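queue> pop job 88
queue> type: inverse folding (structure -> sequence)
queue> payload:
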């Protein structure tokens, strides 16, 4: 019976001295009051009554939100600044034996460091230089906490609360700055509108001038082409007459026929061909001109055969005087040719 009791006691002692260390934690083991080792995650056995776990240390990163600290800037402005420190333990032994209360020491060290840094800066620099303040605090705190086994990973200024009168002044400055920016933007917009309108007018005038120039060039080219076509048609008519091999007799006959048409009693002028005026026409012409003899009365009736000249397709309302003269000459020649063919 006593043997069973002894076995049960031994089992209870062994079980009570079995230590399971969780993940991300470390146990400081002391042997007769002196540091022996650091246990990591896993199962461990300690000697009863001789060894003990002195401290359980968390290896996780910790977030320390310290209360607002009153600080004074270089230009004697008192404000409240709230900071947040991110840190983790990298050496459990130093963390256990380095300082009595590491978190309290880190808090006081952060407050004094913040006062020193802000005391070297003016109000405007403090409000706009948070990154610089964070970097300097992290460097100072990390170096100071190395003997404590603490690694400061990051420092952030959570809030900066200036005095109420400073806030009013800052609000007025902000309002004035916004009004100034609004005025500048309105002036720039007006300037851009005026410049854009002037550039638009300039481009419109340039386009109008170019359009007028192109129109003048096209009109001149059309007139030149019209005149060229008229003269080409006249040249083709003369070439056709030349190719017909008309002798002098035919030419005279055509001339007499043309004279007949001209002197059909409707004309108010007298035409005298040079070849027949030498022989026959002298007396007749003089008698008709003087109103004696067998004068032919003017026939005002409609002519039986009226030759209507076809309109020249090359002549338009924009054709010049030279083109019109050339078209009229070509029309007369064509009429004579058609009449001779009849």
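queue> result:
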């Amino acid at each position: 019976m006593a043997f069973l009791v002894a076995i049960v006691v031994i089992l209870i002692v062994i079980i009570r001295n079995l230590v399971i260390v969780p993940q991300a934690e470390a146990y400081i083991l002391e042997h007769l009051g002196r540091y022996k080792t650091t246990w990591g995650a896993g199962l461990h056995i300690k000697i009863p009554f001789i060894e003990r776990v002195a401290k359980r240390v968390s290896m996780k990163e910790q977030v320390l939100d310290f209360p607002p600290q009153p600080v004074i800037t270089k230009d004697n402005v008192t404000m409240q600044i709230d900071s947040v420190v991110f840190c983790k333990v990298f050496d459990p032994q130093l963390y256990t034996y380095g300082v009595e209360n590491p978190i309290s020491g880190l808090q006081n060290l952060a407050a004094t460091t913040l006062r020193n840094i802000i005391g070297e800066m003016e109000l405007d620099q403090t409000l706009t230089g948070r990154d610089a303040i964070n970097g300097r605090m992290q460097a100072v705190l990390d170096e100071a906490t190395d003997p404590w086994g603490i690694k400061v990973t990051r420092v952030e200024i959570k809030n900066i609360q200036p005095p109420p009168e400073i806030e009013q002044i800052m609000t007025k400055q902000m309002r004035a700055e916004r009004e100034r920016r609004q005025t500048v933007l309105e002036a720039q917009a007006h300037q851009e509108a005026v410049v854009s309108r002037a550039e638009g007018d300039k481009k419109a005038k340039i386009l109008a001038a170019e359009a007028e120039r192109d129109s003048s060039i096209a009109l001149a080219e059309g007139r030149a082409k019209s005149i060229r076509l008229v003269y080409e048609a006249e040249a083709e008519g003369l070439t056709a007459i030349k190719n017909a091999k008309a002798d002098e007799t035919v030419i005279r006959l055509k001339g007499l026929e043309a004279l007949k048409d001209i002197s059909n009693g409707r004309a108010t002028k007298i035409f005298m061909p040079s070849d027949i005026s030498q022989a026959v026409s002298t007396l007749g012409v003089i008698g008709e001109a003087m109103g004696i003899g067998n004068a032919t009365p003017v026939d005002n009736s409609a002519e039986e055969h009226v030759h209507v000249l076809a309109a020249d397709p090359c002549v338009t309302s924009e054709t010049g005087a030279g083109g019109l003269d050339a078209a009229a000459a070509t029309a007369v020649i064509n009429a004579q040719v058609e009449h001779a063919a009849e």
